[in-house]
Design brief:
The complex is a heterodimer of chains A (270) and B (220). Chain A is built from 10 helices and no strands. Chain A has 270 residues and is mainly alpha-helical. Chain A has a domain of 179 residues: Up-down Bundle (Cytochrome Bc1 Complex, Chain C). The two termini of chain A are 39 Å apart. Chain B has 220 residues and is an alpha+beta fold. Chain B folds into 2 domains: 57 residues; 143 residues, Rieske Iron-sulfur Protein (3-layer Sandwich), CATH 2.102.10.10. Chain B has 3 helices and 11 strands; from the N terminus they run ααβββββββββββα. The chains are: A mainly alpha (270), B alpha+beta (220). At the A-B interface, helix 7 and helix 8 of A face loops of B.
Chain lengths: 270, 220
């Protein structure tokens, strides 16, 4: 097994850091791991021996990043965490939500907001987090565009990102109906009708979204299924593809970073 | 030893010297198995994907039954002003399935369009022809006015201002035992000519009627 690269020490504040051994202290040997660490090591070894996952983990985590990598490179991770936050809060909101157009949907949301312990907080995270996610997606896209990071060989990752952007907006559109108050109802009427103004296919698309010619009994459950089953699955799968390509191709250097001139290489070329 | 190239050229496995080849066999068994496995996989995936897809898009092709709803007595409705009536478009979902319809008696002096001369009552949908907000009848102005984007319609429901692309939709009406009844929705083009119901935002004049086809199940 190849030697793992040494991880840098975690950035603890100075008072918490162990002082380095002074010269002359200790016998220069590393202490044997305690029983807890021993158990952890054997569990990890057991899994790794059967899956070889440590290679994949090293491939993902110990990558070379270009010089000049800065805070703008965290926007993609920020979007990912916004999505994870939406996924977790959404799963738990689904424990209370009832997609019942006859009034049960509004009542269940009212119950979550007013009566459930931390209900208003979790619902608020999901509601405001959706806007945060859209903003972060656009910032991430703007960074990619301005850095020129969509260029060869990363075009496919840009395309996947655009699909993810559209899916995120679909999540926003379908999630807007679920509280089923006046604003949700009329915004969905208007949104579906805007879909319908697309020539030729538009009328069929709006009928598909409504599940019929008029806002009907199954429109809400249709939106609910799209919002919590179809689109999140697609987003999760595409995020995996997106991250795979990021890992495979690496990140782009910032546009202002200069190519390092190394004279010895120039000589070697001659 | 025969020429290798000639051996590959023959389409018969027997000629290519495959062990156990049959007379007249043209496809290798490995190829046959691969193709068979692919087809079996495609059939299995299609067996659950196609029904699920049809299940999801089925409502697009479902025709809604014609139903009549009583709006009021024949004497309740004047011929120069509208009375709002709330009807149920979709039963079973409470307020979300209801809609306001503006009803008045047909007046030959006002309704001069050549269409639907035999109808006795005019029922105008409150669904704006722009993108579907609810319009209200403003008596003083004798206009239907939409709160969302400022669509304005005249007494006959024809657009006089704002973004709507066609007149307000109407509903079929009939009189049964001195009661005015309201039936299904239909749309009208700018000449108030009746066409099958379309969604808001879909113009019905000129090329619009071809760009926005009617529902496959529409009943005129």
């Amino acid at each position: 097994m190849p030697r793992l690269p040494r991880l840098p020490a975690p950035p603890l504040p100075p008072p918490l850091q162990e002082p380095p051994p002074r010269p002359g202290e200790g016998d220069g040997r590393v202490a044997a791991p305690g029983p807890a660490a021993e158990a952890g090591i054997s569990v990890v070894d057991w899994v790794d021996e059967r899956t070889s996952l440590s290679g994949a983990a090293r491939w993902i985590m110990f990558r070379k990043v270009p010089k000049g990598t800065n805070w703008f490179y965290t926007l993609g991770s920020a979007t990912l965490f916004a999505f994870l936050s939406q996924a977790v809060t959404g799963v738990f909101l689904a424990m209370y939500y009832r997609p019942d157009a006859a009034g049960g949907a509004y009542e269940s949301i009212r119950y979550v907001t007013n009566d459930v312990f931390l209900g208003q907080f979790v619902r608020g995270m999901h509601k405001w987090g959706s806007s945060v996610m859209v903003v972060l997606v656009f910032l991430h896209m703007g960074r990619t565009f301005l850095w020129g990071a969509y260029k060869y060989p990363r075009e496919l990752n840009w395309v996947i990102g655009v699909v993810l952007l559209i899916l995120t907006l679909i999540m926003g559109f379908t999630g807007y109906l679920l509280p089923f108050d006046q604003r949700a109802y009329w915004a969905t009427i208007v949104g579906v009708n805007i879909n319908g103004t697309g020539p030729l296919l538009g009328p069929y698309l709006s009928d598909f979204l409504r599940g019929g010619g008029e806002f009907g009994a199954t429109t809400l459950s249709r939106f609910y299924a799209i919002h919590m089953l179809i689109v999140p699955g697609l987003i999760a799968a595409l995020i995996l593809a997106h991250l795979y390509l990021v890992t495979k191709l690496g990140t782009t250097a910032p546009p202002w970073s200069k190519v390092e001139r190394r004279p010895e290489l120039n000589e070697a070329e001659v | 030893m025969p020429d290798k190239r000639a051996k590959h050229k023959s389409k018969y496995t027997l000629d290519r010297g495959m062990p156990g080849a049959f007379e007249g066999e043209t496809i290798t068994r490995r190829r046959f198995m691969t193709g068979g496995a692919n087809v079996a996989g495609a059939v299995a995936v299609g067996a659950f994907t196609l029904p699920a897809l049809g299940f999801a898009i089925g409502p697009v092709f479902k025709s809604t039954p014609h139903h009549w709803e009583t709006a009021g007595k024949v004497d309740d409705f004047p011929d120069n002003n509208y009375i709002p009536v709330v009807i149920t478009l979709t039963p079973g979902i409470g307020e979300a399935g209801k809609s306001t319809v503006y009803v008045r008696k047909r007046n030959p002096a006002i309704d001069t369009d050549p269409y639907d001369r035999d109808t006795q009552y005019i029922a105008i949908s409150s669904r704006c022809a722009h993108i579907g907000c609810p319009v209200r009848w403003v008596d003083a102005a004798e206009r239907f006015i939409c709160p969302c984007h400022g669509g304005v319609y005249d007494l006959l429901g024809r657009r006089v201002g704002g973004p709507p692309v066609r007149p307000l939709d109407r509903f079929y009406t009939r009189v049964l035992r001195r009661q005015v009844q309201i039936g299904s929705r239909f749309s009208v083009n700018s000449e108030l000519r009746r066409v099958s119901p379309r969604d808001p935002g879909e113009p019905l004049d000129g090329i619009g009627q071809y760009l926005y086809p009617s529902r496959p199940t529409a009943q005129k």
